[in-house]
Write a structure and sequence with these properties.
4-stranded antiparallel beta sheet; 11 strands; about 0% helix; mainly beta; 7-stranded mixed beta sheet; single chain
Amino acid sequence: QVQLRESGGDLVQAGGSLRLSCAASGLTTRLYPMGWFRQAPGKDREFVASIGWESRTSLYSDSVRGRFSISRDDAENEFYLQLNNLKSEDTAVYYCALGTVAFGGAQSHEPNFRTWGQGTQVTVSS
């Protein structure tokens, strides 16, 4: 059974940085695209960033492009989201997700992801 576990969420001041991690077990994830999504209180879950297999492609939402960076370490079966210059509107629960299609490129739509973690809370104080 594939499991994803996020870590690294925290309370941080505006302008600060965090690094989120997602550890996968039960499957070698290197062939699959991976993604990060987030859900703020009272809002729908939204796409943040995605990375394709072998890091060949990446996608970012307009709201985080230039501030966040996604990466993966296939040897460790982990992938990461570096959050820089955080803003109060980045406050949310962040989820990592495993893509459905082997050898796939970066994806931005939720139906293209089949396994989700439990989430990690990021709170940005202004």
